[in-house]
Design a protein that fits this description.
single chain; about 150 residues; mainly alpha; about 5% strand
């Protein structure tokens, strides 16, 4: 994992510097453990009570391995009916948290797709985009300007 460690080190330091909230396991270059914890703490546990969580026994999931065995892989089409119910105003279908709005894809497959957006997903996406923007901005400033 020398290559992975080498690649992660600058990002790890950068994330820690900018957010001050870096998971200690990322500092020790154990992102798999951190990701597994995020899966359980931020995705599985909060959604145990929604219809999808009950149907897929989220309350029994104790590890990433459990998640892989219990929750099937699915495509958007597999969830389309559930998402349409959410668009119609039904709550607690795929997520427990209230859906604030839906992102709509461009419909490259002929039919637009609706992506549910919650306060939690907005906060997570916002922090990711902020970090990327800050990192990218510093990198761009280092490049020489053509005359």
């Amino acid at each position: 994992m020398v290559c992975g460690s080498t690649l992660l080190k600058p990002l790890t330091v950068n994330v820690n510097h900018h957010t001050g909230k870096l998971d200690p396991r990322l500092r020790s270059l154990d992102p798999e453990s951190a990701q597994s914890d995020v899966l359980l703490r931020r995705i599985v546990r909060p959604n145990e009570g929604c219809e999808f969580g009950r149907k897929h026994s989220f309350s029994r999931i104790r590890s990433e391995s459990d998640f892989r065995q219990i929750v099937p892989l699915c495509r958007y089409e597999d969830l389309r009916n559930d998402i349409e119910r959410m668009v119609a105003g039904e709550s607690g279908v795929l997520v427990s948290e209230p859906v604030r709005r839906f992102f709509i894809t461009s419909g490259s497959t002929a039919v637009p797709k609706y992506i549910p957006v919650t306060s939690g997903s907005c906060a997570t996406s916002g922090s990711h985009f902020k970090l990327i923007g800050e990192r990218f901005g510093r990198t761009i400033r280092r490049w020489p300007v053509a005359a």
